[in-house]
């Protein structure tokens, strides 16, 4: 835990007592703050009270007494309309911050020189975050991994000299971290996402830009118009900017050339890493993630040899293009985190012969954007509520069956793939759908896929 000493003996309001909210409240109390915490869920309030957190209905609180208001990133700050607590904080002139902001203040107060790498972007940030942390840990460095990747940042060990922090940041967290100042800030890409919470693409992009604007080194993907403009503004402001690209060569920075990550300086380029044969970093998108990780690790003093060793031993991110089993020429891939078509595209682009398990609770737009990958699909196995709509989209372009359940889909896909004469084929769960019609979340769905794969005779599990 990171005790929040910067609010010692001061009154702090907090709303949102889920996992990260409760951890934040406990960190504030541990640092000596006087906390008044609340949640719209009475069970969460009771749990906090049982943990020794001061609770109280913030409707009735004296907001003029609070030094700060800590808001859970899951609670609307601006759109579609501010949460009622936000209106009360604004009316009283109380600053509104989140857990990442508390972390950066503690780092600034106690160990301002300890390396801090922050990662954001619409896609790829979790893989990039995990990859950077793996490189640092495998090189023997004291590494703390947290943030949006699933470990609340305030549960990490306190800032100390020589301790490295790798923190994934969502747009919601950045919006609540006005003084975020990483040693290396990474912005991978920007496509429309969470616009219900940010109002417009321009506002969403402006929030993401804040992460790199305060960084010592800004590492920015330049494959879309928004991030290219952000990189240009950072350079014009005098920041050290490392540009990365996956679709074109650069004269300065890192770019992707097939399976190679190239480093360009003054127009001359040379390969810094080759990802060929690293199953957990397949695909052009993962080469971009690797380029960002290489740039970040170099910027905080990691040697090229340590980086290359970390790349080659990267175990991958669970549920994201994760090789989980093999039987003869067939590999089984868990990509349960692909909860929409855009998220499924990278996995479909990375294999040439696919037995595709798709479906669940459908997202707007379905799978029409995946049509360029249909020639790679030997057969589709459709599950959940989306099955009829996905079948209509596939039509005569792809052979399919409506399997209904994941267990049946895995069994049928494995049997069909075993009869395939291709040099290699993949049985892939990449649903392009949410899981909530059949599973609690994508993690549970992915774990179910792994268990069904493990039950197949002759499969060698890779995890």
Produce the secondary structure layout.
Blueprint: E1 11-15, H1 19-30, E2 34-38, H2 42-50, E3 68-71, H3 84-92, E4 96-97, H4 99-110, E5 116-120, H5 125-138, E6 143-147, E7 164-168, H6 171-175, E8 184-187, H7 195-198, H8 201-213, E9 217-221, H9 225-236, E10 240-245, E11 253-257, E12 260-265, E13 268-274, H10 284-299, H11 304-312, E14 322-327, E15 330-334, H12 341-349, E16 354-359, E17 361-362, E18 377-383, H13 387-394, E19 400-404, H14 406-418, E20 425-429, E21 433-434, H15 442-454, E22 460-461
Parallel strand pairs: 1-2, 1-3, 3-4, 5-7, 5-8, 6-7, 8-9, 9-10, 10-11, 15-20, 16-18, 16-20, 18-19
Antiparallel strand pairs: 11-12, 12-13, 14-15, 14-22, 17-21
Description:
With 463 residues, this protein is α/β, with parallel strands linked by helices. Helix 5 (125-138) crosses helix 10, helix 5 (125-138) crosses helix 11 (304-312) and helix 14 (406-418) packs across helix 15 (442-454). The protein has 3 domains: 8-97, Rossmann fold, CATH 3.40.50.720; 100-312, 3-Layer(aba) Sandwich (UDP-N-acetylmuramoyl-L-alanine:D-glutamate ligase); 322-461, Mur ligase, C-terminal domain (Protein-Tyrosine Phosphatase, Chain A), CATH 3.90.190.20. The chain is 34% helix and 22% strand. The model has no long low-confidence stretch (mean pLDDT 95). The chain has 15 helices and 22 strands. A 9-stranded mixed beta sheet has the order 6-7-5-8-9-10-11-12-13, sandwiched between helices. The radius of gyration is 23 Å and the shape is globular. 53% of the residues are buried. Residues 119-296 form the Mur ligase central domain. It comes from Pararhizobium polonicum. One of its GO terms (biological process) is regulation of cell shape. Pathway: Cell wall biogenesis; peptidoglycan biosynthesis. Belongs to the MurCDEF family.
């Amino acid at each position: 835990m990171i005790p929040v000493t910067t609010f010692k003996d001061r009154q702090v309001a907090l709303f949102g007592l889920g996992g990260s909210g409760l951890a934040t409240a406990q960190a504030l109390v541990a640092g000596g703050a006087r906390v008044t915490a609340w949640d719209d869920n009475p069970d969460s309030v009771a749990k906090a009270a049982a943990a020794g957190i001061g609770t109280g209905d913030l409707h009735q609180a004296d907001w003029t007494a609070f030094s700060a208001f800590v808001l859970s990133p899951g609670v609307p700050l601006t759109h579609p309309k501010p949460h009622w607590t936000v209106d009360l904080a604004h009316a009283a002139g109380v600053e509104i911050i989140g857990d990442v902001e508390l972390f950066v203040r503690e780092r600034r107060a106690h160990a301002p020189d300890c390396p801090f790498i922050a990662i954001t972007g619409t896609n790829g940030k979790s893989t990039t975050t995990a990859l950077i942390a793996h490189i640092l840990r495998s090189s023997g460095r004291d590494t703390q991994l947290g943030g949006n990747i699933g470990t609340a940042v305030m549960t990490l060990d306190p800032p100390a000299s020589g301790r490295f922090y790798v923190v994934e940041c969502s747009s919601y967290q950045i919006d609540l971290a006005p003084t975020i100042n990483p040693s290396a800030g990474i912005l991978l890409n920007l496509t429309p996402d969470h616009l219900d919470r940010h109002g417009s693409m321009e506002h969403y992009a402006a929030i993401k830009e804040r992460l790199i604007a305060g960084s010592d080194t800004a590492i920015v993907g330049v494959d879309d118009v928004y991030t290219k403009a952000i990189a240009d503004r950072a350079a014009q402001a005098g920041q050290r900017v490392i540009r990365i690209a996956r679709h074109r060569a650069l004269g300065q920075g890192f770019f992707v050339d097939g399976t190679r990550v190239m480093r360009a300086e003054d127009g001359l380029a040379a390969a810094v890493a080759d990802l060929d044969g690293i199953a957990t970093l397949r695909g052009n998108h993962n080469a971009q993630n690797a380029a960002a990780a290489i740039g970040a690790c170099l910027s905080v003093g990691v040697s090229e040899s340590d980086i290359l060793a970390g790349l080659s031993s990267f175990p991958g991110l669970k549920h994201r293009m994760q090789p989980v089993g093999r039987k003869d020429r067939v590999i089984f891939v868990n990509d349960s985190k692909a909860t929409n078509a855009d998220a499924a595209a990278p996995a479909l682009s990375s294999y040439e012969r696919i037995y595709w398990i798709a479906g669940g609770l459908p997202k707007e737009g379905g799978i029409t954007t995946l049509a360029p990958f249909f020639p790679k699909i030997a057969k589709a196995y459709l599950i959940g509520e989306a099955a009829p709509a996905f079948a209509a989209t596939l039509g005569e372009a792809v052979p399919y069956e409506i399997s209904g359940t994941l267990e049946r889909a895995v069994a049928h896909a494995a049997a069909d793939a075993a009869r395939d004469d291709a040099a290699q084929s993949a049985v892939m769960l990449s649903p392009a759908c949410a899981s909530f019609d059949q599973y609690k979340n994508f993690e549970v769905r992915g774990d179910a896929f792994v268990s069904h794969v493990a039950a197949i005779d002759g499969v060698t599990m890779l995890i």
